[in-house]
C-alpha cells in the first residue's frame, strides 16, 4: 500500500467518524426546570426561578435558553445542537 492509499483511507475513516458524531447530536433533550434554575444560580419553587438578581417564570427561563417549556411535565425541551449551558 502506498502513502496515497493510506492517506485516502485515513481521510475516509475520519469523515465517517465526524458524520456519525454529527448525527448523534440531533434531536432534543429534556432538562428539568429545577436543575436549569439551580445551574443559573437560583432556587426553583412554584413554577418560578428565584435567583438573587432576576426572578423569572419557568417559561421565560426556558425560552432564554432557546428551549420550549412543557408545563405538564415541568421541564424544558432544548435542542441538542445548541449545547445548552447556564446563562451568566
Structure, described:
By secondary structure, the protein is of the alpha+beta class. It contains 3 helices and 6 strands; from the N terminus they run H-E-H-E-E-E-H-E-E. The strands form 2 sheets. A 3-stranded antiparallel beta sheet has the order 1-6-5. Strands 2-3-4 form a 3-stranded antiparallel beta sheet. The N and C termini lie far apart (54 Å).
Question: What about the largest sheet?
Answer: 3 strands, antiparallel
Number of helices: 3
Distance between the termini: 54 Å
Helical percentage: 40-55%
Rg over CA atoms, rounded to whole Å, is 20 Å
Mean pLDDT: 75
The poorly predicted ranges are none
Query: What's the quaternary structure here?
Result: single chain
Strand content: 15-25%
Per the principal axes of the C-alpha atoms, what is the gross shape? rod-shaped
* Structure classification: alpha+beta
State the order of secondary-structure elements, H for helix, E for strand: HEHEEEHEE
How many individual β-strands? Answer: 6
Trace the largest sheet across and list its strands.
Answer: 1-6-5
Amino acid at each position: 500500500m502506498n502513502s496515497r492509499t493510506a492517506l485516502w483511507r485515513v481521510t475516509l475513516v475520519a469523515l465517517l467518524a465526524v458524520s456519525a458524531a454529527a448525527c448523534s447530536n440531533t434531536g432534543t433533550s429534556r432538562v428539568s426546570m429545577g436543575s436549569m434554575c439551580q445551574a443559573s444560580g437560583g432556587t426553583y419553587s412554584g413554577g418560578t426561578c428565584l435567583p438573587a438578581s432576576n426572578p423569572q417564570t419557568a417559561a421565560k427561563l426556558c425560552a432564554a435558553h432557546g428551549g420550549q417549556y412543557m408545563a405538564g411535565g415541568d421541564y424544558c425541551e432544548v435542542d441538542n445542537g445548541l449545547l445548552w449551558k447556564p446563562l451568566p
